Amino acid sequence: MAEPLKHFYNKELIESLSHQLKSAYTSFDSERFQEEIFSDNWDLKELKARITHITEVMHRFLPNNYAESIEILKQVSTYYTGFYYIFFPEYVARYGLDDFDTSILALEHFTQYSTAEYAVRPFIKKHKERMISQMELWAESKNPHVRRVASEGCRPRLPWAEALHEFKKNPTPIFKILEKLLNDDSESVRQSVANNLNDISKDHPELLINYTKIWMGKSRNTDIILKHACRTLLKQGNPEILRQYGYAPPNHIRVENITLQEQIKIGEHLNLEFKLTTLEKSLGRLRIEYGIDFLRQNGKSWRKIFKISYSSCPNTITFSKQHSFKVISTRKYYLGLHTIAIIVNGQELASRHFMLL
């Protein structure tokens, strides 16, 4: 079993951080800093709580002058690269909201070593217009990490962060930023743009549908972004977006020879096999998925969609798929009657029940 992520913040890291802070700021009390980090129920703190705690303790041992503290942290941050070091931009979010100019330069610096995607959000809420303008500038940066935060930071539904409710209601300002990144040569930037657009689609599907119609075919990179951005609408079987990607209604298709265990145990695999046939010359361009209606603790069910194949097919084709019911940390299984559905081009064509024991 993988070690919890919170254990990344261990004695060795804090000793290293303390040493670098002392080198950059000679008045820094490294011994007391380490003592305070590991006091206050450290072992009980989870990942986010540890990040917050490190940030708050750093603040107590740095100069009272915010700009001076930022210069120290900017110097120290260059020794640390990766997501886990978000306590540097977190410092800006907690203590720099009233010093916009200093903070923006700090966030631009820190995101090149960690990520400022969470730290920019309090600034968006307090300084919306200034931040939109700033993120448009960041979208033109030569540094891909800075360009990425221009998109990732304004996502309406960024995971692990408080939603930007104003952008959930009206995402129009975001499009000015994203349009600068639609043909970006960085995969991480393109991924962020796609995720941002996918967020928008959950509240305003019509905006992404229209956006796709306008931008589809402009470039290969743009098409990759749009296809990934439309993933929720495609899984939902949205007819407009399915048509946009060439998936016609599957009225001519039959599902035959379905085989499936009647019951399986947790830890085993569910084996699904079926055949698609048509009387026409070909099945056509198909998006083939299956959905499982998982039981909740209250006895109700929820459906999750899984990919099988996206391709053009002849007039008959057989598919087989294994689905694991191995215990994983992100999903809890409940025993009882489940349903599996075969979905073609957004429409459920057949379903079967099985018992999870």
From TrEMBL:
InterPro entries reported for this sequence: ARM-type_fold, DNA_alkylation
Which Gene3D superfamilies does the annotation name? ARM repeat domains (1.25.40.290)
One Pfam family, short name please? DNA_alkylation
Q: What is this protein's name?
A: DNA alkylation repair enzyme
UniProt source species:
Candidatus Enterovibrio escicola
